[in-house]
Amino acid sequence: MKIADDEPPILSALDRPNSYIGRSVPRPNITRLVQGRGQFVSDVVLPRMAHVAYVRSPHAHARILKIRTEAARRAAGVIAVVTGAELAAVMTPWVGVLTHLKGLKSAPQPPIAIDRACWQGEAVCAVVARTRAEAEDGVAQVEVDYEPLPAITDPETALDPATPVIHPSLGDNLCFERTLDVGRVDAAFAEADAVVEATFRFGRHTGVTLEPRAIVADWNEGEQKLTVYQGTQAPHMMQNLFAKHLGIAEQQVRVLTKDVGGSFGIKVHTYADEMATVALSKLLKRPVKFVADRVESFVTDIHARDHRVKARIGVKKDGTITAFEIDDLTGIGPYSVYPRTSGIEANQIVNLVGGPYACANYRARARVVFQNKNVMCQYRAVGHPIATAVTEGLVELAAARIGMDPLEIRRRNLIADDAYPAQSASGLKFEKLSHHQALAHLDAMMNYAGLRAEQKRLRERGIYRGIGFASFIEVTNPSAAFYGVGGARISSQDGATVKLDAQGNISVHTGVTEQGQGAEAVVAQVAATAFGVPIERVRVITGDTDNTPYGGGTWASRAAGIGGEAAWRAGVALRANVLAVAGAMLQARPEDLDIRSGIVVDRATGNERLSLEELARVVYFRPDTLPSGVQAELVATRHYVPRAWPFAFTNGVQASYLEVDIETGFVTLLKHWCVEDCGTVINPQLVDEQIRGGVVQGIGAALFEHCLYDERGQLLNGNMADYLVPMAAEMPDIECGHVASPTADSTLGAKGAGEAGTAGAPGAVMNAINDALRPLGAKPLTDMPFTPDKILRALGKV
Length: 798
Known about the structure:
The strands form eight sheets. This protein has a seven-stranded mixed sheet, sandwiched between helices. A five-stranded mixed sheet has the order 7-17-16-15-8, sandwiched between helices. The chain has 19 helices and 30 strands. It folds into three domains: 19-24 and 493-640, 2-Layer Sandwich (Aldehyde Oxidoreductase, domain 4), CATH 3.30.365; 44-149 and 210-263 and 266-300, Alpha-Beta Complex (Aldehyde Oxidoreductase, domain 3); 375-480 and 644-794, Aldehyde Oxidoreductase, domain 4. The protein has 798 residues and is of the alpha+beta class. The model is unreliable at 1-10 (pLDDT under 50).
């Protein structure tokens, strides 16, 4: 495969001498970060910078009758007090819809509420002051008269005729609905020897990033230029949105993303308070800074996973799965989040249920409804944990019903490893997966037979341990089929520019962003290998729309598979450029030369011929000595977008081993395993870190995390004391294993790895709890998180 007619073949990453592919290379930014020398948005200080704090609605739904700002305007340090109506003159509202999600609708959302507040925590007024403390003091001086309105909080009744409509212009509270009916579903259920039904509930929760959302916007009136320092996953996307809604050109907007303290999908969306901060900077013609405090984060960071799924599975006595059927209902808050929309999670659930299995009969319905709670949108492993838990929960319930081992029923139904390319019942196209190989690897890695024997012995002593599994598929490396086809300006491509400096070092400017996941390390490994220099001579630059190629950023496990491939191709192209110059200088054919360890060598013998520093010296400072007609180009830019497949699916399987105290309902996690196939593993340590971190977030959903609301739409536990997150002492050892089915759609063959852990962990934990309690006749638990009181209720002890 060639990148251009005049360039050499792109060799396999594993064929390159001194390859860094497959090596656990340390993160290049780790020394700076552990020394406390990171630069986060909170660290940014600019001349004349002001701070904004927001007056937020205490009501889940209320009409704004009057805002009294006189006292606040007189408060010490206050620069301006701005209402939604005043800010509307600077920034236009937005609507979160995608055309390929048929029927998806939402109301226009302004940066600051104008007539109504639609969830507790929505901003209704901004106070800008010299310091954050003075801005908060000013907020306390603003008086708002509200007329409380009925709060719609229960998705189950949101579509009832008697339920008030949150946005009358939309006609009802239905945001989006999708139905799917494939195969002979009714006949397949009729042919089944057993039909198992269950209702799965998933607690609404949020990302709780270590660094809260933060933004500094700096409108320069003289230059007519906006510079935004933002902790975002997608700088180019935000550049487009800021320009669009301020009514300026994209070239007038620069977005800088430096260090980010975690994102998990939380920081890839448009937030009203961040848009308002940008608009305030333009209005006031000075830098304005907003950093969400933890309480604000709980009521404004997107939430996710609030789903009720009624589901059933048909199975024959020999273990053959005959059909799946689901009915999903989710409440997303009063608006569909812009620009990715709040319909994607439910749409993903419809796509993914039953995905690993060779079952052609599938019926699904998903309804997305508006409600007066904080908005919901994409969060790490969008839809995957729900679809996996539903699918794998049904599979293990079916296995129990017919008396079959849970691994055996999977062996009989997972798509065969030699059956690819294949397609799921919902229409997902799979290039190459490895469910059976992964299952066999897990079986051996965890000593399944030995654990079952141990479980049996302990049950005789009144100790109840459970083993649960979850096979999964994961969407990675998304093409334009994800968002671009729906009209969103969210790039599916990514680019890399690789430059050789005058000392023989290279810099890589990439469109992907570093969020703490190790993207800089991966890009450096790829570029160093592709070009032929030690990794210490590679510098990676990310997160600057003025200086990096246009790209999608970091989301959907795409940084390595798409951004890494762009870096590989740019590195190969620069190597070809350098060897062309070296050939002219050495009177040799470029194809007889190579670059190894930063030295131009004879390809066949490895004999050193020319240092990169000497080559660069001649090119940059004595080009007159080059042969006539030789024009050196020591920079190369390449872009990459997946084309052969809409997505590069990965797959894997997880297992959980735990113990349930039947007197207290407490769960002790003993061990967790994950085997994943993410194609070519570029950095094993980073991949395992991603898997373990994802597993921990999945365990959080299964056992701890839940945004609790009352019937009035009031968040009851929006603080770190009452909202439970998984802690290190509660986590088990997490063992990772790998099989590899590289994608042929790229040279590297890399797929994503960032969301696999989150996708499978909740289902595996759920199945392990039910396995532990099954001898006691407990009702199967399907309502996450599985708190001690729910476990005791299932045992009939409460």
